[in-house]
Amino acid sequence: MRIGVPKEIKNHEYRVGLTTGAVREYVANGHDVFVETNAGVGIGADNDAYAAVGATILDTAAEVFDSADMIVKVKEPQPSEWVQLREDQILYTYLHLAPDLEQTKGLVASGCTAIAYETVTDNKGGLPLLAPMSEVAGRLSIQAAATALQKSNGGRGILLGGVPGVAPAKITVIGGGVVGTHAARMAVGLGADVTILDRSIPRLRELDEMFNGRVHTRYSTVESLDEEVFSADAVIGAVLIPGAAAPKLVTREMLSGMKPGAVLCDVAIDQGGCFETSKATTHADPTYEVDGIVHYCVANMPGAVPLTSSHALNNATLPFGLALANKGLKALIDDPNLRNGLNVHRGRITNAPVAEALGYEMTDAKQAVAA
Fold first, then answer.
1. Which of 64, 81, 161, 296 has the fewest Cβ atoms nearer than 10 Å?
2. Whether 46 is catalytic
3. Last residue of a domain, one of 265, 299, 333
4. If DSSP codes are grouped into helix, strand and coil, which group holds residue 25?
5. Of the residues 96, 182, 295, 345, which is catalytic?
6. Is 364 one of the annotated active-site residues of the chain?
7. 291 and 196 inside one domain
8. Are both 295 and 309 inside the same structural domain?
């Protein structure tokens, strides 16, 4: 199969769909890999590095799209990219379609087969291709919150870990999944006072044991959410419903009860955000204020650390990508976990949460591919 790797064009996105090590694996399996010039410069991999492992370097994204049977990216295709997709082509990348009607329309119109990293599953029901970026984003959320809390950035002017004689910052993490766990780990490591809210008692037990009492755990109710958000210096939104739009858990009305200069960091922004006042921002302009509350809502947080992120992502995506390259669409028939990643196929929506969120009729993924 011919594999295409265009350069990412989202604002301040420095990751790359395939690292040189991943390219080497595809080539070793007999596939041709076409990489857009300078696609890997953000991780320190120049054209020579890609050529040395067997890739063909092409001058433009258009040439990559024209040459490839499968496009491997990191972020969702931008408007200039989705119009270059075609019916006989596989797109393998993050999509986050539920809050993005325009992108969904573009992919449907293209007729391509679009596989979303974030809905591929494993045998335990986990999300193995989302997990590595959730780990990165969770850890980065605390760095972002610490920076946003500085007075010069509009925050309260509080040090995350405090100092002897001065209390540390209070961090509330909404959601005890991968993002929330890694956010808590970073915050605890910096000496903050951390509370995790979740609606799963078994998960709260796991977190209590994991952190040996160093974090507070609370069952998430309207009352407990109010109390923790109002008392927090920073709130980390780490809620995920696989494939679906994130629920709006913190309303605008609640902002008036928060501490002036407190920070909301919405890691769920790719799925529409879990704060009512969230809107996607970029690394170039990461924060804004609403009612005196600083919002950090960067939609590609792991792009800030592309070297770490690209390698972590490729470690997870490579086995499924090779299966697609080796078997084509048959890989979707053979592997139900990979098939769960199928969101769009030849003009049809094949993911139930996406279809429900956007008002599309849902087609069974296996039936769609078999047809």
1. 161
2. no
3. 299
4. helix
5. 96
6. no
7. yes
8. no
